[in-house]
Amino acid sequence: MAPISSGAHPDETTVLGAITMYIETSSQRTRSKTCCRRRSRKKQLPPDLKELLEETVTRVFDVELDHIRMPTRGRARVAIARQVAMYLAHVSCGLSLTETGELFGRDRTTVSHACQVVEDRREDPEFDRALQLLENITKILTFCLPAAPAPEEDEELWDA
Question: Measured between alpha carbons, how far is 13 from 89 in angstroms, rounded to an integer?
Answer without folding.
Answer: 22
